[in-house]
Write a structure and sequence with these properties.
This protein has 224 residues and is α/β, with parallel strands linked by helices. It is built from 7 helices and 8 strands, in the order αβββααβααβαβαββ. The chain has a 6-stranded mixed sheet, sandwiched between helices. A two-stranded antiparallel sheet has the order 1-2. The N and C termini lie far apart (116 Å).
């Protein structure tokens, strides 16, 4: 009886194994789904279980001496400024032109050099940096008229030696270093950045003419 029951058990076991193999062959192996964004847990370098040579050393913070003299670097103030008055400004005016300023001048049908002279009542030299020229070239055929105006021989070309070709950063950096320029722009963000730099006037376009902002009263046309 024992041998017969044992044989029955073996037969049933082999049958179940055969059925499971056939089922897996038909259905295929079920893939284990990994949990999303799971990270391997790593032992901390400050863990006590690590050896002393492998363990990260704790940094000792030094207590500050209250009697010690604190050194602090103060930004050098340009010598050309008398408070907000810029002594380097004067005719002929060198005006840094932005990409948007040229485009809006074309829409308003203004001759840029003549309109600048009508605004400031003095000789004006429009200046274009390499970054502004590169930005105009990237804009393609739609702004080919603006590019043609920028290549006018009356415009002075200023070479750029800094990294990157972002025109706004280029103009802000140049105006910060040299206070002899007026910035001509219609861009609100650039205006906001230049207003933080003392002694730099801003030329903008309104009512189909150029106006000036932050210009000393004894220079040029008043702001309208």
């Amino acid at each position: 009886m024992c041998s017969a029951s044992r044989d029955n058990d073996v037969e049933s076991l082999t049958h179940t194994r055969a059925v499971s193999r056939a089922f897996s062959a038909v259905m295929g192996k079920q893939k284990k789904q990994r949990k999303y964004a799971t990270m391997k847990r790593m032992i901390s370098l400050k863990d006590a279980r690590l050896k002393e040579k492998d363990r990260a050393k704790t940094q000792k913070t030094k207590k500050e001496d209250p009697s010690a003299i604190k050194e602090r670097e103060v930004a050098k103030y340009p010598s050309c400024l008398f408070f907000q008055y810029n002594t380097q400004l004067g005719p002929p005016y060198y005006i840094l032109v932005d990409t948007n300023f040229i485009n809006f001048s074309i829409k308003a049908k203004l001759d840029m050099v003549q309109a600048m002279m009508d605004c400031l009542y003095a000789k004006c030299v429009p200046c274009i940096t390499d970054c502004v020229m590169a930005e105009l070239e990237k804009l393609g055929m739609k702004f080919r008229v603006a590019l043609r105006i920028a290549k006018d021989p009356r415009f002075e070309r200023l070479p750029c030696s800094h990294k990157g070709t972002y025109a706004d950063d280029c103009l802000v950096q140049r105006v910060t270093q040299h206070k002899c320029y007026i910035v001509a722009t219609v861009d609100r963000d650039l205006k906001r950045r230049i207003r933080k730099i003392p002694g730099v006037p801003i030329m903008y376009l309104s009512n189909h003419r150029y106006n000036i902002e932050r210009m000393p009263d004894d220079y040029g046309a008043p702001r309208l």
